[in-house]
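Quick review question:
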């Protein structure tokens, strides 16, 4: 058991929890990135939701259909919590996302501790606040830019996390990976958007797009919105410049993980 405040020990334990013999190409990495994302993306832009509270551990939140599949990371991180009982779930979930990004070859994410775990279930954000992948550009702008306060560039940078992982039909109804190298955090998401030819997939599932070249890769309707302005210029930028993408993703993801954390009134620094 580590000493309270020994976040290096927690990071080490998270790294040991990422490999898996029975999940998605042997890694929980992309799932942990999404867990941190969904734990933070409930912020309503005013006074509730976001990463503070660790409410993803409650059935009322993890039962949101958008969170189906994230129990894999939550269960994997329970072993980390048991070894480091002093860390809050809110800090553990967000830190795990940062560690996973770097473990998969992505940039270092500046992360601050100090989130607390709520016990009052009245503070659990309602279901339905996370982005709906079936929607288009206006929905992306409403959720990312109007409600959560991101710029168009930050929105595109966050979407770049789709370089890793894949969708499972049994989870949200979509199926397949975005890139050929879904275990490597790169700028491939943007390259695939621009270099491949995308058409609506003919199948009995939810509306998604597949590449004409291999019929193995997919894009969601919200991904395709990135090809429209005001987003496309940043897709083109990141497709050409992975270093710039890493820099901007690091800043945007760190900002995402701070949503709902009021460091001016609760003593956090």
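Suggested answer, residue by residue:
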């Amino acid at each position: 058991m580590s000493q309270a405040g020994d976040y290096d020990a927690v990071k080490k334990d998270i790294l040991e929890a990422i490999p898996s013999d029975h999940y998605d190409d042997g890694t929980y990495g992309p799932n942990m990135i999404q867990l941190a994302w969904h734990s933070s993306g409930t912020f309503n832009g005013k006074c509730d939701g976001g990463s503070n509270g660790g409410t993803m551990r409650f059935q009322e939140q993890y039962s949101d259909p958008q969170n189906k599949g994230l129990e894999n990371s939550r269960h994997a991180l329970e072993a980390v919590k048991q070894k480091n009982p002093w860390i809050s779930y809110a800090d553990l979930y967000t830190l795990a996302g940062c560690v996973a990004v770097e473990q998969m070859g992505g940039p270092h994410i500046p992360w601050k501790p100090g989130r607390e775990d709520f016990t009052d279930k009245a503070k659990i954000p309602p279901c339905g606040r996370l982005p709906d992948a079936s929607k288009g550009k206006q929905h992306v702008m409403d959720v990312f830019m109007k409600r959560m306060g991101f710029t168009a560039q930050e929105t595109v940078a966050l979407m770049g996390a789709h370089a890793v992982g894949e969708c499972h039909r049994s989870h949200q109804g979509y199926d397949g990976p975005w890139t050929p190298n879904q275990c490597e955090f790169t700028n491939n998401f943007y390259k695939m958007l621009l270099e491949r030819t995308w058409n609506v997939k003919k199948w009995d599932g939810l509306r998604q797009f597949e590449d004409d070249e291999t019929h193995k890769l997919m894009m969601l309707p919200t991904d395709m919105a990135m090809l429209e302005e005001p987003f496309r210029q940043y897709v083109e930028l990141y497709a050409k410049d992975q270093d710039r993408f890493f820099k901007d993703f690091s800043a945007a993801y760190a900002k995402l993980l701070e949503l709902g954390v009021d460091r001016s009134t609760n003593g956090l620094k």
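Why it works: The mean pLDDT is 95. The two ends are 25 Å apart (CA to CA).
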